[in-house]
Amino acid sequence: MAEEETEPKEDAASAADGTQGGEEAARPRGRLLRVLLWLLVIAALAVGAWVGWRYYYQPDQTGAEPPASARQQRVQPGGAAGVEVEMLGNLVHELQAQLQEQRRGQSALGERLAALQRELASARERAAAPAMAPDRELLQVLEAEELLRLAAHRLWISRSPQGVMSLLSRADRLLAELAAPGLEPVREALAADITALKLAPQPDIEGIYLRIGALQQGIAQLRAAPQPEVSESEAPRAGTEAQGFWHQLLANAWTALRRFSAEHLRIRSLDQPPPALLTAAEEARLRQYLSLLLSQAQLALLERRPEIYRAALEQAEDLLVKQFAADARTPAVATELAELGAREIAPPLPDLRTARERLRDYLARRDSAAAGEVPQ
Fold first, then answer.
1. Closest Cα partner for 352 from 191, 238, 241?
2. Phi and psi of 63, rounded to 5°?
3. Are 168 and 359 in contact (CB under 8 A)?
4. What span, in angstroms and rounded, lies between the C-alpha atoms of 297 and 288?
5. How far, CA to CA in Å, does 324 sit from each of 183, 222, 283, 333, 355?
């Protein structure tokens, strides 16, 4: 009996264990089904939200607002969410319409501003047109004034009428083409200047320069000390056998004595001052100083400076007479220097100031008349 009672208890325990195992196996499957169900619900909500946004919030491709009937068809009439979506859609469309209106207004303002700027630039050009484009008479007068300025500048630099006459003649022709009574004093001053330039002496500057250069070469050949002069009768004749030894010796000694006395001894009278005795180095420096004086005279000649020119030639002439009096060619060179020093290298020329001043007065009166002022 005891064995029979134990067998039913074991069967009941094994049945209980089997029931617990089936419940534990069914729990994971239930959880998986719930997760899948939630995923499906979320996917359905996402698809519904996208469809709602696509049909309720986006405008048409043309940018026009959809009609009210279409919006009413899209929104469910019975739901509060549909009413809210419709209100938001209307607000979005109104904001878009306002934004487009503001943009059109800004573009219109920009076009108006550009038009005003073009009108302002055109008005400025019309206002500045008279000042930027002077008349023909004023242009010719200004050109004549510039020609007079160039002529005065060239005359001041070159101190010669060469090249100045053409500028003055051109200015006179320009003023002659104008029928203005106020230009007569200017043309009168121009005629006086042109006549003065024609009558002014024109020194041969190039010829004087070349003559001074030739004198430099001639002075280099002058001798400061007298050279001994040996006559043919006193010269030794080596090939002559008629003279004896002693006679030839005395002749040679006499010739050497004359040369020594001519080079180292000078005989003078009381009527003239004794010439200065120079060594070879002093004579070389004297020749170099004379050459520098003549070069200074040439430079002053080119710059039309008569004071410096005459002073250099006079100083060179004085040194020649004192130091090179023993040479027979010195008087001719001194005469040439004196003749060149007496040349007029810078004759008086007009300054062309009167014509320029009268032309400036004419321009001042013309500007005053154009401005409406009463000329004094």
1. 191
2. 90, -5
3. no
4. 14
5. 63, 7, 10, 10, 53
Q: How far apart (Å, rounded) are the C-alpha atoms in residues 362 and 186?
A: 9
Is there a contact between 287 and 187 (Cβ–Cβ < 8 Å)?
A: no
Distance from C-alpha of 360 to C-alpha of 149, rounded to nearest angstrom: 12
Using CA atoms, how far residue 219 sits from 234, 281, 284, 285, 310, in Å, is: 31, 16, 12, 13, 18
| Residues 217 and 323 placed together within one structural domain of the fold | yes
Cite the beta strand spans of the chain per DSSP E: none
The pLDDT > 70 percentage for the chain reads: 71
Q: Which tens digit of pLDDT belongs to each residue from 255-298?
A: 888 777 766 665 666 665 555 566 778 888 888 899 999 999 99
From the list 200, 201, 214, the residue with the least C-alpha distance to 298 is 214
How high is the mean pLDDT of the chain?
A: 75
222 and 283 share one domain: yes
* Domain ranges, residue 183: 136-201+351-367
Is the same domain home to 212 and 154? no
Q: What is the pLDDT of residues 189-244, one digit of tens each?
A: 888 888 888 888 888 888 899 999 998 888 888 877 554 454 444 444 544 445 67
In the predicted structure, residue 159 carries a pLDDT above the cut 70: yes
Q: 328 near 114, Cβ under 8 Å? A: no
Residue 311 has pLDDT above 90, yes or no: yes
**Same structural domain for residues 306 and 360?**
no
Contacts of 83 (CB under 8 A, 6+ apart): 75
Token pair for 14: 């094994």
Q: What DSSP letter does each residue of 137-195 carry, written as one string? A: HHHHHHHHHHHHHHHHHHHHHH-SSTTHHHHHHHHHHHHHTS--GGGHHHHHHHHHHHH
pTM over 0.90: no
Count of structural domains within the chain: 2
Task: Say yes or no: 188 and 208 in one domain.
Answer: no
Q: Is 167 in the same domain as 218?
A: no
Please indicate, yes or no, if residue 174 is contained in any of the structural domains. Answer: yes
- Give the pair of three-digit tokens for residue 171: 């200015």
